[in-house]
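Predict the 3D structure for this chain.
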Amino acid sequence: MTNLMPVLFVPHGGGPMPLMGESNHQELIQFLSSVGESLPRPKAILMVTAHWEEDIVTVSSKADPKLLFDYYGFPPETYRFSYSAAGNPTLAGRVVALLSAASITSRLDDRRDFDHGTFVPLMLMYPKADIPVVQMSLVNSLNPAEHVRIGKSLASLREEGVLIVGSGMSFHNMQAFFSGNPAVTAKSQKFDDWLACTLVDPAMRQDEKQLRMSHWQQAPEARFCHPREEHLIPLHVCFGAGSVASPSAERVFQGQLFNTWISGYVWA
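Done. Predicted structure below.
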């Protein structure tokens, strides 16, 4: 279909390390720094962040959000970043209305600032900070099918010039990242390949894709790659939002981070 904004899932890396130029993040930094230029310019961005969980879907409606430095143990300069993108209370209200129309309970939050799942990738993707941003939480049940349904309810935002971005990680096992164990690479690749097959394969029926995403725990090495799935679930929202009009995604990034394979996807 034409004149639809894409839906994008990006790995956001470790804490502020992409903004520090950290050596293991070079492939990811290059991707995040270029992907914005490859997309149509959005009127606004809806950011689904792995670093915000609530009992119901919660949407930031603050007009002038600041930054929430929700990471620990990094150099002092990483607590002095700024990103001056405006909020968009009108879009936040629109998101809540769409969720309500799908019988999904949600609320507005006029105090929430941008966490690092939002500002770290956006500082690389859109460094001018000239596109309004609304942030959306996960539901702390982390139910995959529920988050696919949340995404589906928001699909019409693509017709309104809104870029839906899921910010998480396709691999997120903190101990494995830093283990130095070569077996980790092979395990991460099995899950990464399964994700790519599920999301990208044009021959796979849509109902099969949705079934696989809803039961992602059955994938090879699923629980090794995601001992807790909060960094994967933004991808489910993207799958729901993107697959309504774009049955298959394109893998727009695959690289290694701390000896593990990670990927990014777009539904165009």
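The radius of gyration is 17 Å.
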